[in-house]
Write a structure and sequence with these properties.
0% of the residues lie in helices and 53% in strands. The strands form two sheets. Strands 2, 4, 5, 6, 9, 10 and 11 form a seven-stranded mixed β-sheet that branches.
Length: 118
């Protein structure tokens, strides 16, 4: 059974930082591209960043230069360091594991709330 467990969300003020972690179990971690997405009520889920096991990274333009994604294959961990947070970063953040091959599946965590407000 695949599980992705996120942690690290919370309430911060604009300009502050947060780090989100996601620990995976039940899958061969190195065979999955790991990513972070976010969703605001009433809107579609939005891509933030992803990283494959070789370290190739993609970022959404909205977070480039502020957010940093990383992974530790030994710990089955993917992290998102978020600096310079803005109110528009407020959302539910989700961890995603996408198999290199489609038949390996696509999995989501339960989400963690990030709120940026004064």
């Amino acid at each position: 059974q695949v599980q992705l467990v996120e942690s690290g969300g919370g309430l911060v003020q604009p300009g502050e930082s947060l780090r989100l972690d996601c620990v995976a179990s039940g899958l061969v971690f190195s065979l999955y591209r790991m990513g972070w997405y976010r969703q605001v009520p009433g809107k579609e889920r939005e891509f933030i960043a992803d990283i494959n096991s070789g370290g190739i990274i993609n970022y959404a333009d909205s977070v480039k230069g502020r957010f940093t994604i990383s992974r530790d294959n030994a710990k089955r961990l993917v992290s998102l360091q978020m600096n310079g947070l803005k109110p528009e970063d407020t959302a539910e953040y989700y961890c995603n594991a996408a198999g290199v091959l489609r038949e390996w599946g696509d999995y989501w965590g339960q989400g963690t709330q990030v709120t940026v407000a004064s």
